[in-house]
Design brief:
single chain; 450 residues; alpha+beta; OB fold (Dihydrolipoamide Acetyltransferase, E2P); six-stranded antiparallel β-barrel; 20 strands; elongated
Length: 450
Amino acid sequence: MNASVDARADLLAGLLSLARDVSQARSEDLAAYAIVNQTFQLLPYHLALLWRPADVGGGRITHASGLAKIETDSPFVLWMNALAAHRIERIPEARTQPAMLSAADFPERLASQWAEWLPAHLLWLPLPSPGEPWPGVMCLARATPFDAHEVALLQEAAIFHGHALWGWQREHRNLRARLRKRWRSRRMRLGVLALSLLLLLPLRLSVVVGGEVVALAPLVLAAPADAPIREVLVRPNQAVKAGQPLFALDDTGVRNRLAVAAKSLDIARADWLRSSQKGFSDEGSRADVAALSARIEEKQAELAYLGELVQRLTVKAPHDGVVVFSDPLDLVGKPVVTGEHIMTLADPFRVALQAWLPPAEAIALAPGAQMSLSLHTAPLSSVPATLDESSYETETAPEGGSAYRLRGRFAAQPPQLGMKGTVRLYGERAPLAYHMLRRPLAALRRLVGF
């Protein structure tokens, strides 16, 4: 007697535990997963399946015991869908009455595969609900038949299974019904139409990058010789006149070479004079006179070159302009080689707008595209410009990273040379929707690689 009471208590506890797991599921998918897996605590079975009807007719297997996800195109699922559809279409009480099924209850095209996919016995257990929508059918399969007590127990479990799924379905259908009702309203349709027209509104593409005012065709002032810089005679961005000294290289080495060349010239002249005097009596000395004359010319040319080089060691401005360099302290004492860039001489009235466009921000730009510069010193106003040229390949930008170099000309009075700010570049017109989705789509393309 006590054993029988304990067994019934265990069944009741299992039934209540199953009801709690299903009713407390946080989603319809988790509730269905609990139905096909947790029912095993009431009685053993080989396989549990959940068949759910579709909104527009038909239905399909959505969950199976032991599986987190159903492959909808697998042969077993396709066969089981056909099996359920056959019973639903031909048996009117299939929606309400449980039934014990076997291969003999189906036509040959379905029965021939029964042994391949299912054990001998299948319990068809409809899930009841208070109303529409109907939640579906639970199918339990095992090798031994289900007795009447087990079927009665499973019918009790099917009641709260059906109520749980019906509640989730009703919530989803109510949401869809509310959306359909709102869509039927004139205000909603007008709102969607207005939003669609707004998203199609053509606006000009634009991008903001960094830029600065640079010299147009500046003159590079390079080192005339291999020597350290002795002194810098101007300040950065100073206006200079033609012929004004800018910087001077150390002339110690060149003056020493000049002194040696002068001494060598004196020696060559003395040798030439001696050979000329001896040439009256010595035939060999007369033959050396021509070679010594050529040597004198060579030393004269070397002396003239070194004399000119001494003068060139002090570099002067070839024309009026503004000298552009960083800091005199960085240059004084620095050893340089011939041709090394020291500073730049620019015409302050011949300037251009230079901007650097990162590849991630690139838009289609054609020569003549509109540009505007907002200086850091005057952020509330902008200076108009037009695009003249853009680099074909990316270059290393001053701030680091690769970017396309853009250069434009100012349409009005240009700003001061060296001023920096932000440059807005204007491209072609595109719908507002494209403006909103351009960056997310570009980021998605880089992420997934399509």
